[in-house]
Amino acid sequence: MIEALIIIIGFFGLITNRDLIRKIMCINIIQGMLIYMFINFSAHSSMTPPILNSGDISGMADPVPHALMLTAIVVGVCFNSIALSIVVKIYRRCQSINTDDIYEQS
Amino acid sequence: MNRAEIIDLLIIYPFIPAGMMLFTLFCKTVFKKDISIFTTNLSVIVQYFMGGSIFLFFFNNPSKLVFPLNGFFGSITLMFDTYKLFFLAAYMATTSIVLISGHINESFRNYQERILLLLFFTGCSGIIVSGDMFNFFVYYELMIICAYVLIGSNKKYSASLKYMIFGALSSIFLLSGIIVNYLYTGMLSFPGDYSMPVLACIFFILSFMLKSAIFPFSWVSTCHSAARVGFSAMLSSFTLITGIFGLYYLALPGLRSNGMILNDILIIAYLSSLISAWNVFKAVKIKKMIAWSSVYAVSNAIILLMHGQIFYSFVYISAHSIYKTVMFLVCRTDHRLSKVLFNLCVMTAGGVFPFMIFLLKAHHNVFEESLLIIGSFLVMAGLFRVVPKGDVRLTDNATWVFLMFLILNISLFFFSTRFIDFKAQLVDYNSFISRIYISFVILGVSWLTAKNRRAQVLYKETKEFPMRSLNRELAVSIIMFLILILTFGR
């Protein structure tokens, strides 16, 4: 429930903010919460980590969500690095990262 | 070498040279530029041959092939079927035209951009052969992250950022769909053998609507027109149609049982078709016109898909890739052949007889046919205003582009006759003749309209930077999601 609330806050920030850095932060909040929610739903405290010592796999957490979300985190990092580098380029050009100011100057 | 190995190589081949070039990024060698040009062009040519082999294999024996990607990539599962041939055709048509026009060297000017181009090719090939949702997501991200940087390479950073924000939003919806599907079904493969939860379908639909930029999203005109010509062509002709790929493979199987949502998407596609055609008619910058006409084509393909005419839809997008690439490449050249080519492409976009899109628009009722006629008129009347005027070099290669255009169109026609019975359309002879008559009337009227409107300055630089509407567009995407949720609740 808290995850859903934070995702809604992220969407609200994405829509209402005019600052580019804040927009990127809101995208990160949404992505982070999605990843957290998936991991949270797919494993609970009574489960053991998916490390195979013997042939018994009962009670182990499903390793697939963890593997998938690790990839999603890597994709998110790539997105962040490129988004921030583009914001730096925009700042050097327009001396602002506010969408309205950028509109006025272009 | 068997089929699976060739399909493996389709991804691996552009990826390995990109990796090697990445390692030599900081080396100072005299031949660095020449090596990068050679490697990039060679990658396209080799992919072209591999794609050709796959075509020959699947053309003679249409089937579905699921297989692991061996070796370095571990346990990734790939899938190839007959429908994917059309996406492969679209990809190969785009890259081959861009290669033969010399725009791989012209539009991707330095070493880094060529590395990104090769990674972009890896992403495109990966999307075509991906066998499950998560691989589709990863390859799509690879493709689109390269696209963000390559759009910005033309110093249009704001367009790049806008593309990035919408891309990120669509990726969030795609990831949400994958998560919901996995939590409910425990599956990651494309649906078909199992039923998908409708909530996951809604996430997928919204994601692919955003990716295809259909109504009410309008980011495509800013973002696709901002890149250099060669890359704009690739974005409009291949990246945009990945939305249809996703819609068919991910969302549609889950929605077949829910006719209500299918009808809603059909209405949105019709609205998108008309609005994008109107934007083509009203636009004053060439690249924006062509970008809007891409949205028009994608909307029409979605209409065909929603009507259940899958082959018609996929042949449409393959034809779209050919003429859209050529349009982008020749719209700003002064060669006489370029003008002929551009006008041929406009007639293809409008669906005039005997161009193939005319045949693909056959199976609609009178109301839908009339909407398509209005759309065709607006698109042709808008695009006929363009008088190709030279500021991009293509004069040496225009003949080759023209030849490639003819070869690809004829090949696509003969290829599609295997899947679509064009002769069946001749059965209702009177209807066929009347459609030919109507198409020529539209051609004439749109030509005259364009001639009267040609006094407008086409190369006028308008102050157009819809960054201000970014927040509004984002809000619209969330509202669309809520409407779809309500439809689901209904």
TrEMBL record, chain A:
Gene Ontology CC entries for this record: membrane
Keyword Amino-acid biosynthesis: no
Membrane topology designation: Multi-pass membrane protein
Parts of the chain that traverse the membrane: 20-39, 67-88
Keywords annotated in UniProt: Membrane, Transmembrane, Transmembrane helix
UniProt keyword Translocase present: no
One Pfam match: Oxidored_q2
Protein name: Cation:proton antiporter
Organism the protein comes from: Muiribacterium halophilum
